[in-house]
Automatic annotation (TrEMBL):
The keyword Lipid metabolism applies. Keywords: Lipid metabolism, Methyltransferase, S-adenosyl-L-methionine, Transferase. It comes from Paracoccus simplex. This is Class I SAM-dependent methyltransferase. It is an enzyme of class 2 (transferase). Its EC number is 2.1.1.-. One of its GO terms (biological process) is methylation. Belongs to the CFA/CMAS family. InterPro entries: CFA/CMAS, CMAS, SAM-dependent_MTases_sf. It comes from the Bacteria. One of its GO terms (molecular function) is methyltransferase activity. Coiled coil: none annotated.
Length: 420
């Protein structure tokens, strides 16, 4: 296909970063000695590169029909250069928005949510342990000190959440989407709360159950295997955290999710929602099909909304936003830490996955995660997506203090309490 080869040659010359291409015939295109070369087994995959369909190109890499020669960090420089130029976020048309709402409604029943969560988090506990920190905190770290290791920054993040919520001994605390129990156990160990966590992942449920038993915390720490909509406590909680959860909720269920947070929280109580948000005001998808790639291979059913959309919906549910913080660069660094850790032990990672799935599938999953971690690191670094912590209160008009009448909660309306 001389025309396709000529198109690729032109595209390579126009790129702001060097890229090599090896055709199925063995012929090489692009400048010599480049950090990254894409080796194609089929011309159809080459057409995805020519058309700028990056999500489809990612599919080809996952299946092994296209191979990456070079590091993930260097590859992401190429991906950034290939991505759509105007802000990387494509504003959806009216038809696309309607289609998205129907898709969201169909993909976020209780059964589908459980299936989608388990397809991601139940891949293998041991696989995640290879590249997460020792507490297996699978969310944005907080590099309070730039010299912190990932493990230190994750503990700093857990403490930041506890401090923002002003957790006190004996308070009833719930963690919606508790993961492998990092926040749940940290709040119990260091703040003396009575803690409840919920998850839809059986692997995570079993892991946290073992932690609780090993530390003898069964009297005041518990983990439940249930949907957030089905949690019905005997009395509402004093404090609530939801970390990395609302990305899975779906636009169709966002108001239900926010109303559930309020239902679970006593009047005057405080909640913290920590989650990934869209960069575009119209909840725009990242261009080039990159968002579609993540939904297909990593987070089925995942949907992002802009922080303004999130705050509006939380307000509709009756919660009051009292503080919001953007931790976007922290997540870029977190993801690079995860990516580098995975890249440093690829053979072990593939062997670990192969213990729970066929070897061919293990190889595909590993390739997908390599692209996902590095691609998300680049996306946060470049501002294509963001990460916000939103601190909320369930207003109680009877609550206040002598120095802050009308506070409607225990929140002091001064940030200094977090850092003392």
């Amino acid at each position: 296909m001389p025309a396709l080869e000529a198109l690729i040659e032109t595209k390579l010359q126009q790129l702001s970063v060097p890229l090599g291409v090896r055709l199925p015939s063995g012929k090489r295109l692009g400048p010599p000695g480049v950090p990254v070369t894409l080796a194609f087994d089929h011309m159809s995959a080459l057409a995805q590169l020519a058309a700028g369909r990056l999500g489809r190109l990612g599919d080809e890499i996952v299946t092994g029909r296209t191979r990456v020669e070079g590091s993930m960090r260097d590859l992401m420089q190429v991906v950034a250069a290939l991505a759509p130029a105007e802000g990387q976020a494509l504003r959806p048309s009216l038809w696309q928005r309607l289609k998205s709402r129907v898709h969201s409604a169909l993909h976020h029943s209780r059964a589908r949510d459980a299936e989608q969560i388990r397809s991601h988090y139940d891949v293998s506990n041991e696989f995640y342990a290879l590249w997460l920190d020792p507490l297996r905190v699978y969310s944005c770290a907080y590099f309070r000190d730039p010299q912190m290791s990932l493990a230190q920054a994750q503990e700093a993040k857990l403490d930041l959440i506890c401090r923002k919520l002003d957790l006190r001994p004996g308070e009833r605390f719930v963690d919606i989407g508790a993961g492998w129990g990092g926040l749940l156990m940290h709040a119990a160990r260091h703040y003396g709360v009575d803690a409840t966590g919920i998850t839809l992942s059986r692997n995570q449920f079993e892991h946290v159950s073992r932690l609780i038993e090993a530390e003898g915390l069964g009297e005041r720490v518990r983990i439940r295997l249930c949907d957030y909509r089905d949690l019905r406590p005997e009395q509402p909680f004093d404090k609530l955290a939801s970390v990395g959860m609302f990305e899975h909720v779906g636009r169709a269920n966002m108001l239900t999710y926010c109303e559930t947070l309020r239902r679970l929280l006593k009047p005057g109580g405080m909640a913290l929602n920590h989650g990934i948000t869209a960069a575009g005001l119209d909840d725009a998808m990242v261009g080039g099909g990159l968002g579609d790639f993540i939904e297909k291979h990593i987070f089925p059913g995942g949907e992002l909304i802009h922080v303004s959309h999130a705050i509006r919906t939380l307000s509709q549910a009756g919660l009051e936003m009292v503080d919001t913080e953007n931790l976007r660069p922290h997540y870029a660094r977190t993801l690079w830490c995860w990516s580098d850790a995975l890249e440093s032990q690829l053979p072990q990672a593939e062997q670990t996955l192969a213990r729970s799935m066929p070897p061919s599938r293990a190889a595909e999953v590993l390739r997908a995660y390599r692209l996902y971690l590095a691609g998300c690191a680049m996306a946060f670094e470049r501002g294509w997506v963001a990460l916000h912590q939103i601190l909320l209160i369930n207003p109680d008009p009877a609550r206040g203090s002598e120095d802050m009448p009308g506070a409607h909660s225990g929140y002091p309306f001064r940030r200094d309490y977090i850092y003392r």
